[in-house]
């Protein structure tokens, strides 16, 4: 009886994992997730083509990057908050960095990697939060 319960639990879990990367076209149509790069503006959310995954750019938590018109001894770091969700499920918050770790996080069967944060800061000027955008790579977990 215990073995049967484990088999049923495993089968139910495996079924849920399949639904994460399923298209929204219908339950019988499923495509393999391929590596993709996307750009998100501040506050924007996108659904990845061919999947039920939603990715959003939630916030800039820190931007201590060296201004591009200054020579610095350290490049600095930008830390952003990105969210990922499967279909209408809960959003998983991921804090990602440009220089420090982590640059990438694994959730829902995919790896989300922060490739860049723009614009680059200039000395003596602050960047309004709504001017930021992020470039992300999203790929199946190897």
Which key features would you list for this structure?
142 residues; four-stranded antiparallel β-sheet; Tick-borne Encephalitis virus Glycoprotein, domain 1
Helix content: 10-25%
Globular, elongated, flat, extended or rod-shaped: what is the shape? Answer: elongated
What is the β-strand count?
A: 8
Radius of gyration: 19 Å
The proportion of residues in beta strands is: 35-45%
Q: Quote the CATH topology.
A: Tick-borne Encephalitis virus Glycoprotein, domain 1
Task: Give me the secondary-structure category.
Answer: mainly beta
Which ranges are low-confidence, i.e. pLDDT below 50, for 5 or more consecutive residues?
1-31
| Main sheet: strand order | 1-8-7-6
Give the CATH architecture. Answer: Sandwich
Global mean pLDDT: 82
Q: What is the helix/strand order?
A: HEEEEEEEE
Number of spatially distinct domains: 1
Distance separating the two termini: 35 Å
**Biggest β-sheet description:** 4 strands, antiparallel
What top-tier CATH class fits best? Answer: Mainly Beta
Number of helices: 1
Question: Could you walk me through the main structural features you see in this protein, from its secondary elements to its overall organization?
Answer:
The chain is mainly beta. The chain has a single domain (2-140), classed as Tick-borne Encephalitis virus Glycoprotein, domain 1, CATH 2.60.98. Helices cover 13% and strands 39% of the residues. The chain is built from one helix and eight strands, in the order αββββββββ. It has one helix spanning 2-20, and strands at residues 36-41, 45-47, 53-63, 78-86, 92-97, 104-107, 110-118, 133-140. The strands form two sheets. A four-stranded antiparallel sheet has the order 1-8-7-6, with no helix packed on it. Strands 2-3-4-5 form a four-stranded antiparallel sheet, with no helix packed on it. A hairpin with a 5-residue loop joins strand 4 and strand 5. The radius of gyration is 19 Å and the shape is elongated. 15% of the residues are buried.
């Amino acid at each position: 009886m215990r073995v049967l319960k484990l088999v049923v639990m495993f089968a139910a879990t495996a079924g849920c994992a399949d639904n994460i990367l399923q298209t929204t076209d219908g339950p019988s149509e499923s495509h393999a997730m391929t590596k993709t790069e996307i750009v998100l503006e501040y506050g924007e959310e996108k659904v990845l083509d061919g999947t039920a995954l939603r990715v959003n750019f939630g916030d800039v938590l820190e931007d201590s990057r060296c201004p591009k018109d200054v020579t610095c001894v350290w490049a600095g770091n930008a830390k952003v908050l990105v969210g990922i969700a499967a279909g209408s499920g809960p959003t998983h918050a991921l804090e990602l960095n440009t220089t420090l770790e982590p640059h990438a996080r694994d959730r829902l069967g995919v790896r989300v990697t922060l490739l860049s944060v723009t614009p680059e800061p200039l000395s003596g000027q602050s960047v309004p939060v709504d001017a930021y955008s992020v470039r992300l790579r999203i790929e199946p977990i190897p």
